Structures are given as C-alpha cells and as structure tokens.
From TrEMBL:
Keyword Mitochondrion: no
Keyword NAD: no
Record-annotated membrane-spanning stretches: none
Molecular function as annotated in GO: ATP binding
Domain ABC transporter, first and last residues per copy: 16-226
Protein's name according to its UniProt entry: ATP-binding cassette domain-containing protein
SMART domains: AAA (SM00382)
Keywords, in A-Z order: ATP-binding, Nucleotide-binding
Length: 226
C-alpha cells in the first residue's frame, strides 16, 4: 500500500489531471492518487523512493501503459480509454518522453536518433533541426557518434534532445539527472525548464534526487508510507 500527497490544488486547465488513480502490480497496490494536477505550462516534480511507481506513472501519462483504474487526463485527453494506435499517435505528436534508461537506438548515430524521432512526430511544421538542437545541448561534436560510445551523462542529454525535437506540449523526464554531477544536473534542469517555458510546454520530472526538488512548485510524492 502506498499513499500520495499533494501540495497543489488543480487549476481550471491542467496539463495532467489524475483523479482516484489506482495502480496494482499483482496483489500489491503500487499507488492510489486521490487527486493531483499539473497546471498547463507548469513545472512538476514526481518524487518517491525506488520502486514506488514513478516510471509506471510517467508511462501511464505518456500512454505507454493503461494498466490502472480511475481517471487520467493528459492535455485534455482521457488516455486510459483510448486504443493503442490513438495513444501512439497522441504521444508522437504531443509528448516528449525522456526514458530512465534512454532507449537510444544503437544502430543509428546520435543525429539519426533525433531525425527518426522528428520524422515519427508527423508534425513537420514543429520539427526542429537536429543539429541545432544538439548544439544547444552542447552535443554537436557527437552528432555522428554511435550511442554505445557515449558516457551515461551524454546519453542522457541525447535522450533529452530527442524528446524535444518536435516541440512537445508536455515534456516527461524520468530521472533526467541520475547520471549527472551537481553542475550538469543543475544545467539539465535549467535547460528542461527553459525549453518548456520557451515553447509554452508543461514539464513533469521524476526523481529521487533531493538536489533538484526546490526548483519545482508542483510536487507529487508516491510511496509516502515507506
Ligand atoms: N510490467 C511489470 N509487471 C509487474 N511489476 C512491475 C512491472 N513493471 C514494474 N513493476 C514493479 O512495479 C514497481 C514500480 O516500478 P517503477 O519502475 O515504476 O518504480 P520507480 O519508482 O520508477 O523506481 P526507480 O526509482 O528505481 O526508477 C516495482 O516494484 C516494479 O518491480
Ligand atoms: Mg523509475
């Protein structure tokens, strides 16, 4: 059994709104969130110890998983009742997801990882030039590198660049600072916030990294009783 807590009251227009959302894994209730909302254009932080369900919740919000009961509204869409094709399309067009374990395609260079994500986004008008984005993240020297040659921190930044290529309306970042030293962790959070603000996107970051908690006005804690 785990509990959720919230410091936030929902606003009229939310990027993410969760009501009575219960998620079970086998016999165990992973989390039960009574009510939580991330306002549009807000910066949210999802916290809790390892195994409390942070990645699970981010994957539900990204429409990768629907194994939960209750209400989950993301950018105005009720994702739990949509089919997989609709969810895939929604995610490709509107969500930028930074996976905890990056999920870079090893058979493609860094630049082509970004280009493929841009192409999958299907909104050519919103696609950003891959090299410009890599430059902005201090990665231009790595455009032709293969993912397996990168450090963990470099992979993390490439995964962030890939998530931003289609100007997503909601950026979800799963433990984006876990592989980074203090200076780089600060820089990555600043970058995610700047990118979100510049494009009017909402940002939700998961972490158990206490270094970054103060930056986020909207917080949700899972597994509070552990
Ligand atoms: N497909 C699955 N089937 C059954 N249990 C699963 C599945 N995926 C995850 N779990 C379990 O759900 C729990 C939550 O996992 P999750 O990865 O969401 O936690 P987390 O908070 O992201 O942890 P961490 O901080 O280590 O990344 C874990 O106990 C995990 O073993
Ligand atoms: Mg996780």
């Amino acid at each position: 059994m785990s509990e959720s807590s919230t410091r936030e009251q929902p606003s009229g227009l939310a990027a993410v709104e969760v009501k009575n959302l219960r998620c079970r894994r086998g016999e165990r209730e992973l989390f039960h969130i009574h009510h939580w909302a991330l306002p549009a254009s807000g910066h949210g932080l999802l916290q809790g110890p390892s195994g409390c369900g942070k990645t699970t919740l981010l994957h539900l919000i990204a429409g990768l998983d629907v194994s939960a009961e209750g209400q989950l509204t993301v950018l105005g869409e009720g994702l739990l009742t949509k089919g997989s094709r609709q969810r895939d399309r929604f995610r490709a067009r509107r969500i930028g997801l930074v996976f905890q374990d990056f999920h870079l395609l090893e058979g493609l260079t860094v630049e082509d990882n970004l280009r493929l994500a841009g192409w999958l986004g299907t909104r050519g008008d919103r696609r950003r030039p891959a090299l410009e984005l890599l430059d902005r993240l201090g990665l231009s020297g790595l455009a032709r590198a293969w993912p397996h040659t990168l450090s963990q921190g470099e992979k993390q930044r490439v995964a962030i660049a890939r998530a931003l290529i289609n100007h997503p309306d909601l950026i979800l970042a799963d433990e984006p600072t876990s592989a980074l030293d203090d200076d780089n962790a600060e820089a990555v959070i600043r970058l995610l916030m700047e990118e979100a603000d510049h494009h009017g996107a909402s940002l939700l970051v998961s972490t158990h990294d206490a270094r970054i908690a103060d930056h986020f006005p909207h917080q949700l804690r899972l597994g509070g009783d552990r």
